[in-house]
Write a structure and sequence with these properties.
It is built from 17 helices and 7 strands. It has 421 residues and is mainly alpha-helical. It folds into 2 domains: 36-244, 3-Layer(aba) Sandwich (Rossmann fold); 266-392 and 412-417, no CATH class. The chain starts with 25 loop residues before the first helix and ends in a 50-residue tail after the last strand. It binds zinc ion (ZN). Residues 4, 6-7, 9, 24-25, 27-28 line the site of zinc ion (ZN).
């Protein structure tokens, strides 16, 4: 396997990643292009869009200026903070996937209190979550299709229903991580991007018609149908990403949200050293991410170290040590998912067999899967020092105070943490 000579990404990182002649990945090259961007001009452009679309919403009789899709996490806090600072009244919308942590519910509530906003929340039925999660595991090795389909559909339906044309998303994560788009692309939300990436190519009808489908019924996928072109055009719905208009700095923003607005982080985690992201959902850093490791040989620690290396907070060698410590760890929340779906661990693992990348996985003489390569074998590859970034700051682990009621470690889970509402 080829690995980036600057960060920790392998050549099979998703979505598409490219390496240049120096062995540096497209995500690293995108990141280093940021200082050349005129962020003041972009911020002015952002304010003009807000002004124009707020007027459109108000002309439709809305008391809201725009929609912000939220989970209650650090990015949600930051998006709402920016918009309230500019004097606008957002309608917050949240798709409830059902796998909430106590901390996630606490942070969502905190956000409403801190910013004094209205929230519209759609909760999927437990049975729909169960059958969709099982179907997508067997078909594409993903247990969270309903999360992404809900998160990417419910805000658009809300925009149509309430006649509020502008939707403000947070970071377009794929741009940042693998450099699939660059800053000048000014990527906006589209149905195609939603279907191809977030929903693994599956619209609801594709699931109903699929030969693997034995359990999913029309009522299970009904909430995930995208509005018609006519409905979208009648309101003029447009979705933009805040990360296109500011120089996105996850840690700096999160620190402000902790210190100023009481955002709560985890206290410790099983599968990464970073404590401030993906807190609302018991599987995001666990089983969902572990599936990525089982398929492609890397996980959340690779993602987290890559961002920290690019910001000059961590050396590639320190990153590799973190990857070796965390990426392979079996998540304990897998037990909760197995209990929920009635599958055994052997059945779960067998679903992924045909999806394991042969460039990274092989079976040993006993029929056990083992990795053929890892970044730990590429610490001293030629050319690494030629592309090394200077260390700019020390790595500060963002850890809020442990708050009563929700401050349990994320990897200590019981069924009571599996909260629907
Ligand atoms: Zn890289």
């Amino acid at each position: 396997m080829e690995y980036c000579k600057r960060c920790c990404y392998p050549a099979n990182a998703k979505p598409t990643i490219l390496f240049d002649e120096q062995g540096v990945c497209s995500g690293c090259r995108l990141h280093e292009s940021r200082p050349a961007v005129d962020w003041d001009a972009k911020w002015k452009q952002f304010q003009e869009i807000l002004k124009e679309y707020s007027a459109k919403a108000r002309a439709n009789g809305s008391t809201y200026d725009l929609i912000i899709p939220v989970s209650g996490g650090k990015d949600s806090h930051y998006q709402v903070h920016c918009i309230k600072e500019l004097g606008y009244n957002p309608l917050l919308v949240c798709y409830n996937h059902g796998f909430n942590t106590k901390r996630g519910i606490r942070n969502l509530t905190n956000m409403l209190k801190q910013f004094n906003c209205d929230l519209l929340r759609f909760t999927t039925s437990p049975e729909a979550a169960r059958v969709l999660s099982k179907f997508m595991l067997k078909t594409v090795g993903d247990i969270t299709w309903h999360y992404h389909a809900g998160i990417m559909t419910f805000p658009i339906k809300s925009a149509v229903m309430y006649k509020i044309p502008l939707i403000l998303w947070g970071e377009h994560g794929r741009s940042d991580r693998t450099g699939m788009y660059n800053q000048s692309d000014m990527l906006e939300f589209s149905k195609k991007d939603r279907q191809e990436h977030s929903m693994r190519g599956f619209e609801p009808d594709d699931i109903l018609r699929h030969p693997n489908n034995t359990e999913v019924k029309p009522e299970h996928v009904n909430p995930f149908y995208y509005p018609s072109d006519k409905e979208i055009e009648s309101v003029g719905v447009r979705g933009i990403y805040l990360s296109n208009y500011i120089s996105w700095n996850d840690r700096k923003q999160t620190k402000e949200m902790i210190e100023t607005f009481g955002f709560e982080t985890a206290q410790s985690r099983e599968r990464t050293y970073s404590l401030h992201a993906k807190l609302d959902d018991i599987h995001a850093n666990g089983t969902h991410d572990f599936l990525k490791y089982l398929k492609f040989g890397y996980g959340r620690a690779t993602d987290d170290t890559t961002i920290d290396i690019r910001h000059g907070r961590m050396t590639r060698e320190e990153g590799i040590a973190m990857v070796a410590k965390y990426d392979h760890v079996r998540p304990s929340d897998l037990d909760i998912w197995l209990k929920f779906t009635g599958m055994t661990e052997q059945e779960f693992l067998a679903c992924v067999d045909h999806l394991r990348d042969p460039l990274i996985w092989e079976k040993d003489a006993n029929g056990q899967w083992k990795t053929k390569d890892s970044i730990a074998n590429h610490i001293h590859d030629a050319g690494i020092d030629d592309v090394r970034l200077p260390r700019k700051e020390s790595l500060e682990i963002l850890r809020s105070a442990a708050l009563p009621g929700s401050s349990r470690d994320d990897h200590i889970l019981e069924d009571t943490n599996y909260i629907w509402l």
